Amino acid sequence: MLQQTLLERILEAALSRGGEFAEIFVEDKNRTHFEMIGGKLENALGGREYGLGLRIVKGINSFYAYTSDTEEAALIQFAKSLSAMAGQNNPIAAVKLSQRAYEPRHHFRALPGTVDAKVKLQWIRDLSSRAAAYDPMIRQTVVTYMDEDQSVQIANSEGLLTQDRRVRTRTSVNCVAEHEGEMQSGGHNLGGLSGFELYKDVNPDELALKAAQIAVTMAKAKHAPSGRLPVIIDNGFGGVIFHEACGHGLEAAFIAKGTSVYNGKMGEQIASELVTAIDDGTLVNGWGSGHVDDEGTPTQRTVLIENGILKSYLVDRFNGKKLGLPSNGAGRRQSYKFAATSRMSNTFIATGTSKLETMISETDYGLYASSMGGGSVNPATGEFNFSVNEAYMIRGGKLAEPVKGATLIGTGSEILKKIDRVGDNLAYGYGMCGSSSGSIPAIVGQPAIRVSEITVGGRNGGESK
Fold first, then answer.
1. For strand 427-435 and strand 419-422, is the pairing parallel, antiparallel, or unpaired?
2. Domain extents for the chain?
């Protein structure tokens, strides 16, 4: 990390040509990535990423550049060069930084650098062998492991100086099964703001066999019907629909541009009264958590929707300035090579009171989406299209045959208002979210929910054959 006096000099140089605000983001990150395919190690990557990103703000314009050359003379010249883009000479008073600390809430015990690579490899080798042995229909297994130890230092021309350390670990298991010439995949993962201790009390079968079971079940399944149906979406990664179809539209970056379907709807009912949605960057050792965001603002627990009413947006400093709103700790970035912008951290629908079993028994005919896949969404309209990795028909209030190839099609505003049951079984999924400031860790979560009616895309019309 850099000395305080050097940071002050860089900020002064950055504002020497008339900028109104300057921010430094220094990053030192060590990362490991292993990928095992079919029980064989195919990729092993590791290394250190170290550099500095500098942002200058003038009015509604932002100028950003980054460098990996952290020699003092080079950094001062780098700052002056970026400053020249901001306007005419307008020297400012000297910048004086003041260290701002916080009470640590995230603790790491088995730091990645203290765990031998052989231990990490044995962990994923065991997962691979367990998944492959689940059923003869399993044709391929892919197990990935990653860890990173990131230290950041953030300083700005308002006098802020702070730092954070984020240690993250994640394992993902994916399987492909074949039945009668058709291939189907299944996946499961686990992640956290944690060292290798994350796996201390984890049963490997929870990861390996879940992924294999989905692949085998779906390979033997018939094709899903299509039409307007009640759909129950189970907990955990089912929250990806809210994340994509609604969450991105609540990010200040889209609100400030006027390109979100939720523009101008603060205080209005945008969802069922049963829906309360939260983004919580303070979640202890949560996959998307931190003590501060990537602009140095303390992370917060932000209620986005309360009993169906839109209460807040996700706000970073720059877009907050445009909107006249203070940052609520939502400024995030992949690395020093990206300028921070408003992003989700750990976003979920809060716990309700319904039992999953009751939801199913109260549904005469519909679809149970046990595990969700990926999809696409247009933040300007909220229109989405999501695949379902594991699905079952509901008939007469009971789970029936598995079906494959189902997709859920609709808009965020439609699905939110048609949620008529919210379960009591909140759980989280651990994903990577891509946007303008890069790919970042993010929790998606929810309890089971029932949507009274949504368009299901499938191969058959109206009924599973």
1. unpaired
2. 4-220, 223-461
Are 441 and 346 within 8 A, CB to CB? no
How far apart are the C-alpha atoms of 263 and 322, rounded to whole Å?
14
Q: Are 21 and 57 in contact (CB under 8 A)?
A: yes
DSSP strands (E only) in 313-397: 331-332, 341-342, 346-349, 365-378, 383-395
| The pLDDT value given to residue 413 | 87
Listed residue (383, 384, 388, 382) closest to 407, CA to CA? 388
Can you tell me the distance from the alpha carbon of 112 to that of 235, in angstroms, rounded to the nearest whole number? Answer: 30
Note the residue count of the chain.
465
List strand residue ranges (DSSP E) for 180-242, in order: 182-192, 222-223, 225-233
Distance of CA 91 to the CA centre of its chain: 40
CATH superfamily of 4-220: PmbA/TldD superfamily (3.30.2290.10)
Read off φ and ψ for residue 276, nearest 5 degrees.
Answer: -125, 125
Confidence of residue 464 (pLDDT cuts 50, 70, 90): very low
Question: What's the CA dihedral at 281, 431, 241, 330 to 10 degrees?
Answer: 30
Which residue has 């706000």 as its token pair? Answer: 315
Of residues 120, 240, 219, the one with CA closest to residue 175: 219
Give, as one character, the DSSP assignment of residue 137: T
Lookup: tokens for 280: 């919580």
405: tokens are: 């190839």
* Contact by Cβ (8 Å): 95, 8: yes
* Core vs surface per residue 289-299: b (16+ CB within 10 A) or e: bbbbbbbbbbb
Give the containing element (helix H, strand E) for 405: none
Terminal C-alpha separation, the chain: 63
**In whole angstroms, what is the distance from residue 260 CA to residue 378 CA?**
9
Q: CB count, 10 Å around CB of 99?
A: 11
pTM of the model: 0.94
Question: How many Å apart are CA 232 and CA 227, to the nearest integer?
Answer: 15
E strand spans, 379-448: 383-395, 398-404, 407-411, 419-422, 427-435, 438-446
pLDDT tens by residue, 30-64: 999 999 999 999 999 999 999 999 999 998 899 99
pLDDT score at 324: 96
Residue 348 has pLDDT above 70, yes or no: yes
Contact of 148 with 108, CB cutoff 8 Å:
no
Q: Which structure tokens are listed for 91? A: 């020297």
